[in-house]
Each structure stands twice: as structure tokens, then as C-alpha cells.
């Protein structure tokens, strides 16, 4: 429900100029019928309704801006704006994940054209024998890293790497190799959160003895 309302609000912002023009037309009509009413004709309900519609159309863009300030529809965002926007989304509420035997795909509920895709075939595998102590020190020691593609309207716009560990029981972002820190403010971590359908990410960060970090960084271009 919240996503549906947000979608309406963003649509209002996108067509603010058109809505204001329509509001201006209704205002002009309400003014005409108001003059007719003053002259003695019984058109008060019509004048009132037109005035109400005028107020609604004229005020809706300002109301939308109040609830979603400085927010464009996804299709009008630049590359950098899309990356920064993804960081602000809620991994569980704003994204829907669907999986098959050969791929997993997550799409933004607000605009399903924005999506992440991981393929489990040869094309999608980054390293089928991923070896680092934090990834292999589990009951199932095998680990595989995958390319996770960020797409918009089917076009590839960025790539990330996620690592499947302990027999697929967790999908992990790559930590810093030297410090073993996982930065919680990176897109890599956000993507891992989105694909964390088993809710095991936090548990395996502890099991792998990785260090959570939340230093502010620039979004990688």
C-alpha cells in the first residue's frame, strides 16, 4: 500500500505542469460560474465543485513535493542518482526477489524495470572456486562468486560481485581483503541485503568473523 501511494505521489510530481494547467482551467470555469451565480442563476453547486477541483489540481504538486522532496521518477534519474537512490531503499519492503534453478532476480516494486540479476550458469559465474578463509571456513567449505548485474529496462548499467558460501546458505558481499571489513553503506552490501531471502546475512558476517563498518564513502561510479 505504501509503495502504491508513493508511486502516485511521484506520478503527480512528474506531471505537475499538466496538473497545474488543468487546475487553471477549472479555476477559470469556477470564476465564470461564480459570476453567473452572483447574477442570480442557481449554479452554486457547479461553481463550488469547479472551485474544489481547481484547488485539488493546483495544490497536488506542492503536496507531492512535501511528501517526496527532491525525488525524480527512476526513468529520469542519471546513473549516479540511481546508485544513490538504491542505497536509500529498504531491501525487504521495496524489492521483490524471484528465483529459478538458473537465476535470481530482484526488481524494484516502484519501477520493475530497475532490477538486479544473478545467473547461476557459466555466464553468471565469476569464480566457481572462490577461495578466501572467511568464505571457506564453514561446514560446507565450497564457495562460488557470481556477477550481479544491475539493469534498467533490460540494459546493463553496473556489475557487482556476490559470494555464495556454505552450500548456498548465505549470499555475501566482498569484504575488504586486508581488514575484513564489510561497509554497510556500500551498494555491494545493499545488494546482498536484497538477495538475503534466508535472512542469514548478519549471522554469517559473525560466523565469518567479518567486521561491520559504516564509514561514509562516495558511491562507486
The major beta sheet can be summarized as: 7 strands, antiparallel
- Percent of residues in beta strands? 15-25%
Q: So what's the oligomer here?
A: single chain
Residues in helix, %:
40-55%
Work out the number of β strands: 9
H/E element sequence:
HHHHEEEEHEEEEHHE
Please count the helical segments.
7
Which term fits the overall shape?
elongated
- C-alpha termini separation: 33 Å
Radius of gyration: 25 Å
Low-confidence stretches: none
User: Which structural class best describes the helix and strand composition?
Assistant: alpha+beta
Counting structural domains, the number is: 2
Q: How would you state the average pLDDT, rounded?
A: 91
Give a description of the structure:
By secondary structure, the protein is α+β, with helices and mostly antiparallel strands. It folds into two domains: 2-71; 75-213, no CATH class. The chain contains seven helices and nine strands. It has helices spanning 2-14, 16-38, 44-67, 79-88, 133-136, 187-194, 201-207, and strands spanning 95-99, 103-108, 114-119, 125-127, 143-152, 155-165, 170-173, 181-183, 211-213. Strands 1, 2, 3, 4, 5, 6 and 7 form a seven-stranded antiparallel beta sheet that branches. A two-stranded parallel sheet has the order 8-9. A hairpin with a 2-residue loop joins strand 5 (143-152) and strand 6. The protein is elongated, with a radius of gyration of 25 Å.
